[in-house]
Amino acid sequence: MPPFQTKVAVVVRDDLESWQRLNVTAFVAGGITAAHPQLVGAPYADADGTRYLPLLGMPVLVFEATADQLRAARERALRRDLPIALYTSDMFRTGHDAANRAAVADVPGDALDVVGLAVHGPRNAVDKVVKGAHLHP
What secondary structure, in 3-state letters, does 91-128 show? Predict the structure, then answer.
């Protein structure tokens, strides 16, 4: 199989609680999936015929970074015109999707307290976006 020409990367802030890291990862990976349905594979089925939902058809690399590194990753993704799925600290205090969007809309982009983001794009571009972050342990 040829190597993937694109890459999905999730970056979460290194000072989050474990449950927050998992929550943020799930939310922003869902954003990538929604924006790029062509990345979704076929449904699964086990030997008994039980069907399961399709998954992203490529690996998702999960990184951790400081707040400053996340801010820089957001800026690099924007400069490269890579769409960003993001999660801010304010979103932990909301209870539904509309409130999440309002929490982001209330803050200028360069002032967002980003705790996680995901990007999908050409491998080289994504590597440059996540530069400085390291793979999540």
Answer: HHHCCCHHHHHHHHHCCCHHHCCEEEEEEEEEHHHHHH
Burial class of 10 by CB neighbour count within 10 A (0 to 12, 13 to 18, 19+): buried
Instruction: Indicate whether this model's pTM tops 0.90.
Output: yes
DSSP state of 85: E
Gyration radius of the chain over CA positions:
16
The answer to whether residues 83 and 120 touch, using CB atoms and an 8 Å cutoff, is yes
Question: Hey, what CATH topology would domain 6-135 get?
Answer: Bit1 (3.40.1490)
3-class secondary structure, 72: helix
Q: What is the pLDDT along the chain (137 residues), one digit of tens a residue?
A: 457 889 999 999 999 999 999 999 999 999 999 999 999 999 999 999 999 999 998 989 999 999 999 999 999 999 999 999 999 999 999 989 999 999 999 999 999 999 999 999 999 999 999 999 999 88
**What tokens were used for 73?**
């990753």
Cα–Cα distance list, 24 to 12, 34, 35, 52 (Å): 7, 15, 17, 23
